[in-house]
Amino acid sequence: MNAQERIRAFMVESAEVLRAASVDQELTGALAEVASSVCYAIRSGAKVLLCGNGGSAADAQHLAGELVGRFRREREGYTVLSMASDASVVTALANDYGYDEVFSRQVTALAKPGDVVMGFSTSGNSMSVVRAIEVASDIGCTTVGWTGAHGGKLADVADIVLRAPANETRLVQDVHGGLIHALCEAVEAELLGEWTKDDKEKSNAKGGGVLRQGA
């Protein structure tokens, strides 16, 4: 297999797992429930807190960026924060409390009842993420676990579980990336109504939306 064939095979495998996710009614139903929870939080003045490690930290930051900024619609920013983004906070907490508490400590400082707290872990067994969800549940937050098919410990503690139909890390992350965009689409549609020609013109005029050039 040459390099081009290997690349195509790799991309086909990713496309197949995304296709499987798109017809998984349990998964898409859970994502619709997450979208409703996020919209309720935004409407009520609550916030969304996100966490994850490594590639999952990048997914948390990605989702925060789309919701604080915009996905396809020109709109106000939503109150969403990635707890993996502040290196000083994360390293201080890891040093003083141990890495398992780097997100749970932030949850105790930032979360209030009615907030939504999401944890990304492809295995579902990242203890720093599991601990954050446990603490958020005790506070009275709606909790969401983003996992692979096995679910792991995260599936046992989160209110809503988004299980990608794969267990290999890269494939789980491929699905999570697609779910992030689908979630943003659903949130903007619920809060702003359906996409219109006027929305497209406004977004394109600012270099955003489907023709966004700064991403």
Number of helices: 9
Q: State the helicity in percent bands.
A: 55-70%
What would the principal axes of the Cα set say about the shape?
A: globular
CATH fold field value: Rossmann fold
Number of E strands: 5
For the sheet with most strands, the description reads: 5 strands, parallel
CATH architecture: 3-Layer(aba) Sandwich
Q: What is the domain tally? A: 1
Structural class: alpha/beta
In CATH's first tier, which class applies?
Alpha Beta
User: Averaging pLDDT over every residue, what do you get?
Assistant: 93
Walk me through the topology:
Blueprint: H1 3-22, H2 25-43, E1 48-52, H3 55-68, E2 80-82, H4 87-97, H5 104-110, E3 116-120, H6 127-139, E4 142-147, H7 152-157, E5 160-163, H8 169-192, H9 197-205
Structural description of this entry:
Helices cover 57% and strands 11% of the residues. It has helices at residues 3-22, 25-43, 55-68, 87-97, 104-110, 127-139, 152-157, 169-192, 197-205, and strands at residues 48-52, 80-82, 116-120, 142-147, 160-163. A five-stranded parallel sheet has the order 2-1-3-4-5, with helices on both faces. The longest helix has 24 residues, at 169-192. The chain is globular, with a radius of gyration of 18 Å.
